[in-house]
Amino acid sequence: MAALSWDRGTLLVRTDFSRPQRWDTLLRALHTPSDEGFTAAFETVDDPEWRDATAEQLIADAPDWALFIVADAVALSSPELPALVISIEDGTARQLRVTPAVMWAVENNLSIANMDWEDFASAADSDGIYRGRT
Q1: Cα separation, 99 vs 84, whole angstroms
Q2: CB distance 47 to 17 below 8 Å
Q3: What's the DSSP call for residue 117?
Q4: Which of 40, 75, 79, 123 has the least C-beta neighbours within 10 A?
Q5: DSSP type of residue 78
Q6: How many CB atoms lie within 10 A of CB 107?
Q7: Phi, psi dihedrals of residue 105, rounded to the nearest 5°
Q8: How far apart are CA 82 and CA 5, in angstroms?
Q9: Strand 43-45 and strand 11-14: pairing?
Q10: Mind listing the pLDDT tens digit for each residue in 34-64?
Q11: Residue 72 forms part of a structural domain
Q12: How many domains does one find in the chain?
């Protein structure tokens, strides 16, 4: 696999290529502004070279500080499209599923260090998905 360009800020990495319509639906949802006008800021990596890449493979490719979103089989097969958000700080990776409607809150606040990972992780529902209640 080719190395990802981590100098572009938050990345949205597509790893599931078996559901093209669901991928399109996820992209539309992520680009739809919140009621307040916010959207997540990310660069899209839509390269079949990353097909079926695991979170561990993506983490291994990342620097010690990174924030990225993964459109994997779990996300694209679920009606809610809960993408996997991975935050790496000081080489420690943490993972959380986030619905598209609130991705902006997670991405915007983590990328500028306005809120901490735990603010979102502790507000996730019992199924491990953050749906916007902090």
Answers
A1: 9
A2: no
A3: H
A4: 79
A5: S
A6: 24
A7: -65, -45
A8: 24
A9: parallel
A10: 999 999 999 999 999 999 999 999 999 998 8
A11: yes
A12: 1
Q: What are the distances in angstroms from CA 121 to CA 39, 41, 53, 96, 117? A: 20, 20, 23, 7, 6
- Residue 68 within a domain: yes
Tokens of 78: 């679920």
12 three-state secondary structure: strand
> Which residue do the tokens 């559901």 mark?
19
Q: Which two tokens stand for residue 62?
A: 């990342």
What is the per-residue pLDDT across 90-113, written as a single tens digit (0 to 9) for each? 889 999 999 999 999 999 999 999
3-state secondary structure of 4: coil
- CATH, residue 52: 3.40.50.800
pLDDT tops 80 at residue 134: no
Q: Are 57 and 1 spatial neighbours (Cβ–Cβ below 8 Å)? A: yes
- 95: β partners: 86
Instruction: Indicate the residue type of 93.
Output: A
pTM: 0.94
Query: Residue 1 has what pLDDT?
Result: 67
> Look-up: residue for tokens 């992520």?
30
Does residue 134 lie in a domain region?
A: no
Instruction: Find the domain containing 120 and state its range.
Output: 9-125
| 8 A C-beta contact, residue 83 and residue 94 | no
